[in-house]
Amino acid sequence: MSAASKETLRSGAALTALLLISWQLLYWAIGEIALRSPAETMLFTVKYVGTNVFWLHLTETSKAFALALMLAAVIGLSLGFGLGLNRFSGEVLEPVLVAAYSVPKITLYPIILLMFGLGISAKVAFGTIHGVVPIALLTIGAVRNVRPVFLKAAQTMHLSVRETIFSIVLPSALPEIITGLRMGFALTLIGTLLGEMFASQRGLGFLLMNAIGLHNIDVIMAITVLLTLFAGSVSTVLLLLNRRIQK
Amino acid sequence: MTPATACRAAILVALVAVLEILCLAGVIDRLTMQPPHRMLVDLFRLLMSGSLNRPIAKTLGNVALAFTISMIIGVVTGICLHRWKTLRNTLDPLFAAYYAIPMFAFYPLLIIIFGLGDAPQVFIGAMLAIIAVIVSTLNGLDRVPTVLLKTARISQMSRVETALHVTLPCAAPHIFTGAKLAISYSFIGIIGAEFIMSNSGMGYEISFAYNNFDNATMYPLILLILFTSITINSVLARWEKVLMRRRGLR
Description:
The complex is a heterodimer. Chain A is built from 10 helices and no strands. Chain A is mainly alpha-helical. Chain A has a single domain (63-246), classed as MetI-like (MetI-like fold, Orthogonal Bundle). In chain A, helix 3 runs antiparallel to helix 4 and helix 8 (161-198) runs antiparallel to helix 10. Chain A starts with a helix and ends with a helix. Chain B has one domain (34-246): MetI-like (MetI-like fold, Orthogonal Bundle), CATH 1.10.3720.10. Chain B has helices at residues 3-25, 36-49, 53-83, 85-97, 107-114, 119-142, 146-154, 159-196, 202-211, 215-246. In chain B, helix 3 (53-83) crosses helix 8 and helix 9 (202-211) packs antiparallel against helix 10 (215-246). The radius of gyration of chain B is 22 Å and the shape is globular.
């Protein structure tokens, strides 16, 4: 094991310890009405993950999330490449995307629901509109920042547009594109869950909303922790991948 | 007006016109969406009637509060972390993965802890905003040229003087970027929280109108929120560009 990865491991362990300690302290400060201790949560989570109800809702959420992420990635990347390679259309539409990024997209939820109706398509659409903007924006930036020398070299070698994209633009823009996908991943997950929280009878978002209604703190804690762990670990993996590519 | 701006305006106008025609022709029925001109008329009527004044004031007040809290705590934390390298290295992965955490999943817990008042909403807005401020403060402090710090030492400036005359002015444009992000994150956090569960504010009014199929209130409100957040953001972005250019940073 190299020194750098040992260092990463050590700071990861320190961070986990720090978070667990603050959680325990918070639990002591607030008490049983609103929180559970890390140990209690872990025990309950293990038990909860074994139940059928959990798996039913998890499959539902995974389906919607996978579909939304795929759509967000495909639309975001094609928008990004299209607008990044064509200077003028980029200048026209980039500010629109930036504006869309700063809007609280939750306010658009009623419109999405009226357009798509109840069911999985509304969730998927809501997840997609959350994720697509950062993927597109970062891809535009990445494609635009490809060094002009590379593109000129491609031209001199008479590469076709497809070849230029796949063997020049994509590799040199990859680190930033992965950052975009990382942000898109997180936002798509949030979008899908939010979609489930309001108008759905299935999925983890629905379970969360239901647990609030029943004041079932065990379930709220378990789902929150699982979601955080999932999102955090995928994000960390993408981050490490990014570092490896950049080296 | 540059050609790009003109083209963008033309596209937006065309989109609105298409929407208007589709709505008037009945392709999109009234229950799904109202024609855009109706939304504007309704928005004007609502704003004039004064029934929206309280929710607007409440939401904007909370956004301002969350923004102020996140700026103060964020900048101070950023400065401390910049001094204390070990802690910074430990927390770095958290900052990188922070925005992957579905923050609204914590909202139920916050309601239980703080009750159903303004506090959980402000808290979630500040929580979303604070990391952006910390990261950009650190970024700004990292970019203070060493030469300037050496000059400060040569002219025997005290720590406070160095901070006030050298470090902070140098880091200011970067901190401004953080502030811009913090405002839009506070906005997203607070409107989202109000929408999910609350008893007042603009987000609540939308979800209330939506649950009552009251399109004549819902669409104008959505329009108002879109206008507000886009206006704030574009004004700040323009100001940021001016600041950066003055420093020769972009």
